[in-house]
Amino acid sequence: MSRLRGLPAAAGIFAAAIGCDALVGTADAGAFAIREQSAYGQGMSFAGAATCGTSVAGTFWNSAVVTCAQGLDVEGSLSLIVPSTEITTAAFPSSLLGPGSPLFFGGDPGDIGKTAVVPATTVAYNFDDRWYFGATINGQYGLKTETRFSHAAQIYGRESEVFSLNVNPVVGYRINDAFAVAAGLQIQYFDVILSQAVGIAPIAPSAVLNGDDIGFGFTAGLLITPTPNTEIGIGFRSAIKHDLEGMLAIPLVARLPIEVDPTLPEMVSFGLRHRFTDRFSMLGTVEWTNWSRFGTFTVVNSLNGLPVSLLPFEYRDGWFFALGAEYDWDDRWTLRAGAAWERAPIDDVTRSIRLPDDDRLWLSAGLSYHWSERLRLDLGYSFLTTFDTRINIGPGNPVYVPPVTFAADVDASVHIVAAGLKYSFGGRDAMEPVSPVYRP
Length: 440
Fold this sequence. Notes:
There is one protein chain. The chain has one helix and 25 strands. By secondary structure, the protein is mainly β. Strand 22 (360-370) and strand 23 (375-386) form a beta hairpin. Residues 1-25 and 428-440 have low confidence and may be disordered.
C-alpha cells in the first residue's frame, strides 16, 4: 500500500503496507477496510446497515442498534471471500523493469489476492425497558496479498500479512418510543508483517517489517423510529491511533527496532429503512470514511528516536452508497437484494502494487430462513468488480523511488458468500413483521 523510503542505499528499497483483520484475504471495502460484518446485510450490499430490521449485527455501524435486542440475542456470521486480482506488467519504457527492458527478469506479479474467511459476532441484551448492553467482536480492517517471489515490481512489494481483532462493548439507552442512543469503547489489536525485495535480481532477498499494538477508540449512535414502519440510524466509529513497535530486518545490513504511529480513520454511517407493506421494505445507506487523514507516517528507530524512513499513503476520503430491498415471501422465508457504489480512497495517482484498489460496483442477493421463533439462518452473496484499473508508479505517486517506474493493468473482481445464524434466548417472535424497536 505504500513504501518505506530513505533506507541506506546498500539495503535497497523496502515497501510496506498497513491493514488488518482476523482471518482476512483481500480488503473488500475502501482501501483496506473490511465490510463483511453481517450475512444479513451482505444480501443487500449493506443497504440500511445502520438500522435494525430483525438483526442486531448493525451494532457495528450504529451502536444504537443494540437497543433492538429482545432478551438476549446472539448473531454471528462467516464470510468466504474469493478475490481475483491479476496484475499484468506494461511493456518498457512504461515499466523500467518490464517486458522489453534488458533488466526484465521476474515476469508479472500474478494474482495477488488470497481466499480467506472473515468471522463476525454480535451480542445484545435487553436488560430492562430502558437499558441495553452488548458487544461486537470482529476485524474492521484487513489485507493479505502476495505476489510471485520474483517479478518486475518486487522492490515495491512481495507479501503483506496483517492480523487485527476489534472488541467493542456497547451500552444503549431507550429515551422513549422514538429515540434510542448508545455509546461504546473500541479495543483493537493490530499486527503487521510485510516484505519486499531489496534488489531487482530474481533471487534478491526480502526485507521484512513487523510491528503490533493495542489501540483504543469509541463508537456512538442514534436510532430514530418515528413510525412502526420507518427506522433512521446514524452511527459513528472513531479514529484509532496505533503506536506500532517492532523490527525492520534488512538482509546483511541491519535489524532495527522501529516505531510507527498510523491513525486509522473515523467513519460515519447513515441508514434508512421503510416498510411500504406488510411484506416489502426498501433500505438505503450513505457512509463516509475520513481516509484523507491517512497521509504520510514516519518510521523511527526506537533506540534513538531518529527517522528511518517514511510511509507515504496520501489517500482521499472514501464514500459508500447502497440501495436494497427486502421481501417476506411467507412466515419462513425472506428474500433480499441490493446494489452499491463505492468511491475508493485510492486513486490513479496513489495506487500501488500492494493494494491496487479502485472504485467498485457491488451486486448482492440473499435470503433468511426462520427455523423457529428463536433461530434464523441468513445467507448472502455479493459480486464486486472494478473498471479499467491501472497502476502507474512514477513521478507523482507517493511510493515512487526514482528511477524505477512500474506500470500495469489490473483485472480485479471478488465473490463473497456469507452465512450467519441468529439465536434469540428471549423476546418476541422473530417473524413478527413490525419494527423491533417501536413500542406503541
